[in-house]
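Dear colleague,

Thank you for sharing your sequence with our group. We've completed the structure prediction you requested, and as agreed, I am returning the results in plain text so they can be pasted directly into your records. Please verify that the sequence below matches your submission; if there's any discrepancy, let me know and we will rerun it promptly.
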Amino acid sequence: MVEDRVKELGLKNKEEPRKMKDSGVEWIGEIPKNWGMVRIGRVFDIYAGGDLDVKNYSTVMTEDYKYPIYTNNQSKTGVYGYTSVPKYPGNSITITGRGDIGTAFYREHEYDAIIRLLVLVPKNRQMCKFYKYFINGAMVFQEGSSAVKQLSTIQLSPHKICLPPQKEQVKVVNFLDSKTALIDDIIEKTKQSIEDYKKYKQSLITETVTKGLNPDVEMKDSGIEWIGEVPKHWGITNLKYCLKNVKNAIRVGPFGSQLKGDDFTDEGIWVYNQRTVLDKNFATNDTFITNEKYNGLFNFGVEANDILITTRGSIGKICRIPEKFKKGVIHP
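Please find the predicted structure tokens below.
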């Protein structure tokens, strides 16, 4: 597979194997012998997105016009109190400097925007799209031994990047455009298939628990709109009558001063939270309280076969406490 890719890129022929050399950059390793290595600041002018003074590029005046604002490729349109808006050039790259650091986006055409990202404008005829692929697919943003938490123009400029000949840049881009489009299409179709199966699974469960297994059984109105008809020999009852006859058989986790962020520890008694339910994970946890705190919250403790239901964000997701479980309390 690797050999086929190399041939398709035009970097190797049958007569002469491709010659490699050390790039001098550990995470890159070897590169083709005819490729160069250069600091990113030698290839691009780098601007911080917050700067309205984009050198050598015009600005447009605005009187309460709406312009897009780009933050980590999230585009929001709004009215901003700027008297002018930078006109950024086409064939440029924007890079996220916070959060998901180092994600690059290629801009083919010029655009007016207020940008809270880093903007890379080529100093010559370098093919920006090649470097968009390079940054997203290979580049490692590190400062010493720890990952960078915020990327600035000063931090980005000295990073070294590959510098292939122009013809090879074009071949790489054409290859990746074709292959990534195919992969994206597969991903999109797979996502749709997953969603279809999820809907089928949900409808199967709903149909079975409200209609039973016998399609020919006589039905009756349940009296509940979303359930509709149920088998004639089924009953309808309140949920509370299906639960253990104890106080607080249905309970919500402690709020406010009962369980604060300062109460959480790195080890101790488990706190069962939203993540536990969504992941159905009863093997590992990262939220705990002390035994003393647990003794004050025993009314919120869990038992085997308890059903946990999320009440925030992804509301209504459920899981069941297994027979073998860690002693703990529920989070709201």
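Summary note from our side: The mean pLDDT is 80.

Kind regards,
the structure core
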